[in-house]
Amino acid sequence: MESQQEMTPAERLIQVTLAGNLVILDPIKGTEKFYTANDTHDRFTNDRGEEFTAEEIVAAVNERLVEAVQQRMASDRQTTAAQQQNHAFCASCGKPLVPGDRFCRHCGSHI
Ligand SMILES: [Zn+2]
Question: Beta partners for 24?
Answer without folding.
Answer: 14, 33
